[in-house]
Specification:
17 helices, eight-stranded antiparallel beta sheet, Rossmann fold, D-amino Acid Aminotransferase, Chain A, domain 1, Dna Ligase, domain 1, 5 domains, 691 residues, alpha+beta
Length: 691
């Protein structure tokens, strides 16, 4: 077994590999860019090596620097994680030539299956069902349009070296095809250094289901069941689960056997994933093979009890798999939510900056650690919550890399229990300083079609096609949030009343009757008469009456904790509350099940006076193009005096490896350019002024 390995990656996957290596008694070496010098994976590793400046093309994508780091530290093997160089055939070959064990498939397997065009040709030769398309590199947007017409719209434009939603577009007409091809090629060139693009028919109402395979150097290959990855936004996975709520045992077996056959053709060693698109009648077609560890691998670990990183390391060390296909378990149900640094209420634009608060829910589930006994193994643990992350409170989310903050994974006895656990875990996940997609995840988990399993890859586009708004995540009982705010205020004042030295006649008053004022925005408020009374004399309990509904709230969390845990009318709850986060410093912001409410609890006279306060409207910014996100201004498409029609391109901002095109919302004339190409922009920074 190896004594020391280097992890050629960053973020949560680097921390994930370090955790397993430590369990196996293997020392680790981290590599990092200047932007990651204080990153969590650097702190966790036994040693670390600086690669270079923040841009990945000058650090994490420079093979020479990584190989030199291996030699300098004496690392015998290298784990590439996912992304960056993990599916780079030349890098894998270089490692082999330099005597460094690549903890992943051999370079010839990457060449055969990692390249989207080559893998599709091989699948056709092996008589694997594939989707109709054009498997040769397309050289121009004009050629792309002609090919799309022959295939028939809609078509999917895909970068050959793409992954993680980068370099991928769906086009429904000539205009979308022309523009999509150009963006696809640019993203692929910037992210992977390979701008080859091909095209295939887009199967409408498809499900994206993938099979996890695992092979060794002795010809053994098994499949570890499937993952349902159909909940996607812009072709990036948002929620993954295992098993799939859709396919039958017969389909699972057929897909698994086909995936194994394909892996054996290329003599696949290590963990890999064969992706399929599945039709409504459970007919399935090969999409591609990812010759690396997947982001969503934890859900497979939960239901099988296997540590996939450990298996990759053991296979790379030459060990045989110690189990066969018949030994693979499928226990319970696992769900993973990707917690990303993005603002769902601003069209999911990237959100970078400092994590002022980062308090994930308590985790009691680790990667699988099976105890092998002959042909069987026992699951290390069943059920629980797992958090895979590469960040910490006070750390920075840089704009140079992907937007992932953490992966939140739960495991339950069945799908309903897993959904309930995930909703509770999301309620307790505290992130401040940057925006996150937690409210959106909560809305998805509560959607009736998700709960019933009635969805496909178009689910988000269908239900949230015009964007995500606060009203898209209604609360089942908003009066409970009002009651919780009144409860917190009551308990706060009870504590304040016990402080000695108060001026006589001006002591803190404890009011049982008050008014809860809920902000509706734009200066509008809703007033609720509230009565609060202690219950049984216990300091952590009270009854709150709101609009004729009584709530018995029991909560022993500290009053200054953001995360509150307790029960309401005998039912457990997890919510978040904090004061002074919005425009009103007296208001409590209460968050629960993805819904947020600003509540100010006042004495009756103060509530009456509040109704008389004038509303100050925000300034008019309609004559400016403002940056909707922090990022790099890579292109300005207009100049002063230019007339621009609605829909025309104005500027391009690059953030977190994604190209974001800003277009005119109406016909305008450009008066002034206020920012320069190459400038790092902040949120709402003016870029253009219109006449």
């Amino acid at each position: 077994m190896f004594k020391k390995i280097l992890i050629a990656n960053r973020g949560e996957i680097a921390c994930r590999v370090i955790k397993t290596a430590r369990k196996m008694g293997i020392k680790t070496v981290a590599v990092y860019s200047e932007a990651d010098k204080d990153a969590r994976h650097v702190e966790l590793a036994d040693e670390s090596v600086l690669l270079g400046p923040a841009p990945s093309r000058e650090s994490y994508l420079v093979a020479d620097k990584i190989i030199a780091a291996c030699k300098a530290t004496g690392a015998e093997a290298l784990h590439p994680g996912y992304g960056f160089l993990s599916e780079n055939e030349d890098f894998a070959r270089r490692c082999e030539e330099e005597g460094i064990v690549f903890i992943g498939p051999k370079h010839y397997s990457i060449a055969a299956m990692g390249d989207k065009i080559a893998s599709k040709k091989l699948a056709n030769e092996a008589k694997v069902s594939t989707i109709p398309g054009h498997n040769e590199p397309i050289l121009s947007p004009e050629e792309a349009v002609e090919i799309a017409k022959k295939i028939g719209y809609p078509v999917m434009i895909k970068a050959s070296a793409g992954g993680g939603g980068k370099g991928l577009r769906v086009a429904f007409n000539d205009k979308e095809c022309f523009e999509g091809f150009s963006s696809c090629r640019n993203e692929a060139r910037n992210s992977f250094g390979d701008d080859r693009v091909f095209m295939e028919k887009f199967v409408e109402q498809p499900r994206h289901i993938e099979i996890q395979v695992l092979g060794d150097a002795h010809g053994n290959v098994v499949y570890l069941h499937e993952r349902e990855c159909s909940i996607q936004r812009r072709h990036q996975k948002v929620i993954e689960e295992a098993p799939s709520p859709f396919i039958s045992d017969a389909t699972r077996k057929a897909m698994g056997e086909q995936a194994v056959a394909l892996a054996k053709v290329v003599k696949y060693q290590s963990a890999g994933t064969v992706e399929f698109v599945v039709g409504k009648n459970q007919d399935f077609y090969f999409l591609e093979m990812n010759t690396r560890l997947q982001v969503e691998h934890p859900v497979t670990e939960c239901i099988t009890g296997l540590d996939l990183v450990e298996q990759m390391i053991r296979v790379a060390a030459g060990e045989k798999l110690t189990f066969g296909q018949a030994d693979i378990r499928k226990e319970g149900w696992a769900i993973e939510c990707r917690i990303n640094a993005e603002d769902p209420f601003r069209n999911f634009l990237p959100s970078t900056g400092r994590l002022v608060k980062y308090q994930p829910p308590a985790a009691n589930l680790e990667q699988g650690t099976p105890t092998l006994q002959g042909e069987a193994y026992a699951l290390a643990s069943f059920g629980g919550v797992r958090v895979d992350t590469g960040v910490y409170e006070g750390g920075e989310i840089p704009m140079f890399y992907d937007s992932m903050i953490a992966k939140l994974i739960v495991h339950g006895k069945d799908r309903n229990e897993a959904i309930a656990k995930m909703r509770e875990a999301l309620n307790g996940f505290v992130i401040r300083g940057i925006s996150s997609n937690i409210p959106f995840q909560a809305a998805l988990l509560a959607h009736p079609d998700f709960v019933s399993g009635n969805f496909n890859t178009g689910f988000i586009a269908q239900h949230y096609g015009s964007g995500f708004r606060a009203e898209d995540v209604p609360h089942a009982d908003p009066r409970f949030l009002v009651a919780l705010a009144a409860f917190i205020r009551r308990k706060t004042r009870e504590r304040a009343a016990g402080i000695s030295g108060q001026l006589r006649g001006h002591e803190v008053r404890i009011d049982s009757d008050c008014v809860a004022v809920v902000s509706e925005g734009a200066g509008k408020h809703t007033h609720h008469e509230v009565h609060v009374a202690e219950y049984a004399g216990h300091k952590g309990e009270a009854t709150v009456d709101v609009g004729g509904q009584r709530y018995l709230i029991v909560c022993n969390s500290r009053l200054n904790d953001i995360r509150l845990e307790g029960s309401v009318n005998g039912q457990p709850f997890v919510a978040q509350a904090e004061r002074g986060t919005g425009k009103n410093p007296l208001a409590y912001r209460i968050s629960h099940n993805g819904f947020a409410m600003d509540v100010t609890v006042l004495q009756r006279r103060a509530a009456e006076l509040l109704k008389l306060m004038p509303y100050k409207a925000p300034p008019d910014t309609s004559k400016f193009l403002l940056s909707p996100m922090p990022g790099l201004l890579v292109h300005i498409a207009v100049q002063p005096g230019q007339l621009v029609q609605a829909g025309e391109r104005l500027a391009v901002i690059e953030a977190m490896k994604m190209e974001n095109i800003l277009v005119a919302e109406r016909d305008v004339k450009v008066a002034e350019v206020l920012a320069k190409t190459g400038e790092s922009l902040s949120v709402d920074q003016p870029i253009l002024r219109f006449e």
